């Protein structure tokens, strides 16, 4: 078998393991999930799985690290040279779309945070905090320039997280109250009005 063929197979198996792990962790939580369950969902033997990842903890960290990168991309995309309200509303929209498109990932990340982030604290402090501080400085500059209302910049970011991720993390509750109605179209309109009023000078 050629090296190229091996690399492709290894890549496919790694992806299968991470996708299976996401499914199992999001349903069972870290404590309830087992390597046997992940291997079964991935369609691999447990020894084969352990060839790629040495432990359940290693798989969990890999899933969460990839998820954090996806989660940070919308904030990275906020352009310091753009029109402030449009940039902030764009961030709100992208975060809401992540909740709509990746609800399992959102709940998995929320569960890790609720447990005190035992496997992700270093990553969160090393990647998330500097990015938030950088964007908070951008928000503060826009406020100083009189382009958006004076607000606490970090708590503004927290509010965006809370108001968008709620729809994924509490999906069952949201849909029960709305009797199964898709919440996202109305949520998008509501959040745009809310933040336009909040940011208005």
From TrEMBL:
Alphabetically ordered keywords of this record: DNA-binding
Record-linked InterPro entries: Homeodomain-like_sf, HTH-type_TetR-like_transc_reg, HTH_TetR, Tet_transcr_reg_TetR-rel_C_sf, Tscrpt_reg_YcdC_C
Signal peptide residue numbers: none
GO biological process, one term: negative regulation of DNA-templated transcription
Ranges of residues in domain HTH tetR-type: 11-71
DNA-binding region: 34-53
Molecular function GO terms recorded: DNA-binding transcription factor activity; transcription cis-regulatory region binding
Protein's recorded name: TetR family transcriptional regulator
